[in-house]
Amino acid sequence: MAEKKELTMEELVAFTKRRGFIFPSSEIYGGFAAVYDYGTYGVELAKNIRALWWREMVQKNPDIVGIDSSIFMSPKVWEASGHVSGFSDPLAECKKCQTRSRVDHLLEEVGVFADEKMSDDEINELLIQNAGKVVCPKCGQKDFSSAKSFNLLVQSNLGDFTGKMDTPVYLRGETCQGIYINFKNVLDTARVKVPFGIAQIGKAFRNEITARQFIFRKREFEQMEMQYFVHPDNAADLYESWREKRWNFYVNILEIKEENLQWHEHENLVFYAKAAWDIEYKFPFGFKELEGIHNRGDYDLSTHAKHSGTKLEYRNPQTNEVFVPHVVETSVGVDRTFLAVLADSYTVETFEKEDNNGEKSEDVRTVLKLPKKLAPVKVAVFPLMKNKSELVTKAKEVFAELSESYMCEFDDNGNVGKRYRRQDEIGTPYCITIDFETLEDGTVTVRDRDTMHQQRIAIDDLKDYLRKELVK
Ligand code: ATP
């Protein structure tokens, strides 16, 4: 079987729309920039990604517990964390087409790396130094307005009945603040001992300047974050061990091809950070951040303690030592993981097929070679013909039984070959066909997505067979 290698973003975007994975938001009104909806199969894939992350982080680690904090928090949280004053990106406008871009990204394209701490003046200086090299990604022009910091927090008018918005409320810009402000609650209730972690999956909102990267950069997105609270002396070692565990998650659990992953060390750390590395994935537009793993020191707990007046410390029950734990953070987006697993498993392959007379010919299929545990639909059930009621009744019985355990799809439309292609495209590992032989001997045809091999299995053995195969 020959595989076509390069995948373009256009191809992937068109595929996700055509096969019901992702729709642009508010499409009937012309769309809504950098906001997307998950469709029928997208919602299943995203759910499976979340479930695997939760299983690996919370379920399998006795020292990690979960929470689900609210999207709205007191505005004081965002003032204390520094987001109100400092959560901003530098923006410049193309003088020709008025497209707004992030200046740090434009500079990156020409090999210049801006420091996160840089003032507007310093960033402008860099932009001027690189004038003539930096180009507008939309129109290719090289003339820009001066750069200005643009705060990424999304404001709301929650509880503001005057319309004056004296104290704006924010939709959370990251989920981890909800973890820090619940540190004491968890410590008091969850019987955890340092080192321990708090994990959370939830929506975050950012007024992203660039809105051209499909679900890689959304304005409403979802994060899976874990904050591991550690003794300062152990922070460096535990940081290394989390780097290793997170890398293994991608390679062994999500089965992402290792050659499509790489480490990237941050050139410029924010002042409180001790270390910051990203795991990058080779998206169709190049290697870009998938997950950030940060050693954040005691910055988060100390700042919230200072601003709230609540002690956020830990007392070692054996030694009575009291200290502010340091934080090792692992932070990844559901949406970026979704894009990475799709890009990694999207395959167009040429294969040899044989017709009923034994004639061989070449055919092409698109197949999502997703790990089975991520597949949106695990089993498709087909009656060979839709106008034979005995076959349809039997197929419905099989569907009813298997759908107790798995996400299944019932399809009686068109010829079986076409039904296989459709399931290949959405990554369904097994297709089961009920035919006349089934009515005689109680066996069905089970067809494997990757090998396209077909075998007959007794209906009574199906559950066992699938249980063994689908955990792989
Ligand atoms: P970038 O440099 O790409 O803007 P970031 O460094 O600001 O990302 P973090 O604040 O570290 O990102 O967020 C942690 C993770 O959340 C990222 O690694 C990414 O997977 C996800 N994420 C962040 N911003 C977005 C977004 N706008 N859309 C989708 N996912 C996002």
How would you sum up this structure, described in words?
The chain has 472 residues and is α+β, with helices and mostly antiparallel strands. The protein folds into three domains: 10-73 and 157-338, BirA Bifunctional Protein, domain 2, CATH 3.30.930.10; 88-151, Herpes Virus-1 (2-Layer Sandwich), CATH 3.30.40.230; 377-469, 3-Layer(aba) Sandwich (Rossmann fold), CATH 3.40.50. 33% of the residues lie in helices and 28% in strands. It contains 15 helices and 24 strands. It has helices spanning 9-18, 40-59, 75-81, 83-86, 103-109, 120-129, 176-180, 183-189, 235-253, 299-308, 334-345, 389-402, 416-426, 436-441, 459-470; strands at 2-4, 22-24, 36-38, 64-66, 88-93, 100-102, 148-151, 154-156, 169-171, 196-205, 220-230, 261-265, 275-283, 286-295, 314-315, 322-323, 326-333, 346-354, 360-368, 379-383, 408-410, 430-434, 443-448, 454-458. The strands form seven sheets. The protein has a seven-stranded mixed β-sheet with strand order 4-10-11-17-14-13-12, with helices on both faces. Strands 21-20-22-23-24 form a five-stranded mixed β-sheet, with helices on both faces. Strands 1-18-19 form a three-stranded antiparallel β-sheet. α2 (40-59) crosses α11 and α3 packs across α10 (299-308). The longest helix is centred in the N-terminal third of the chain and has 20 residues, at 40-59. It is globular, with a radius of gyration of 26 Å. The chain starts with a strand and ends with a helix. It binds adenosine-5'-triphosphate. Adenosine-5'-triphosphate binds next to β11, β14, β17 and α11.
